[in-house]
Amino acid sequence: MSEIIDSQTAVEAEHGSDLLARISTEMVRAQKKYFGKGPESAKSYMLDDFLLIVMRGSQTVAEKTMIEFGQEDQVRAFRQTFENEMTSRLIGMVEELTGRKVLGYQSQLLFEPEVVIEIFFFDERAGTRAVAATAMGQLQDHTIGEAREGAHDDDVSEGIAAD
């Protein structure tokens, strides 16, 4: 019986990993399309009733220059304004990909390390597939749910696509 459960979990994890990779890739596409630069890497995690997307290396040249001038607050303020304006588009994208209702969304920018975190809260807990994929990614295959720079994807001319 445990072999059946293990094989079912593996199949569910595979389907979940496809979803997480699509979410990462679409978030990168959105960042590139609307912000002008996508991150160097993005990875999605589905836990309980939330989705966490961690994007690394997404600062623009202008933002890096402003940070050198000590203007972190200005960079953060612009990013927050941008994310506030993008809320409905990003929520719509995540709802379409997951088939789930998003109740709330928040974005957070960190300068050291250079990370942007996108958090989406759903109206219900995640299904087994996405949770299993996140768990498998943490325990076995660290690339599950990840999009990285240099992968091939015809829809993304520069930047990242799903592995």
From TrEMBL:
Domain of life of the organism encoding this protein: Bacteria
Record-linked InterPro entries: MpsC
Any Pfam family the entry gives: MpsC
All copies of domain Na+-translocating membrane potential-generating system MpsC, residue ranges: 19-123
Descriptive protein name: Na+-translocating membrane potential-generating system MpsC domain-containing protein
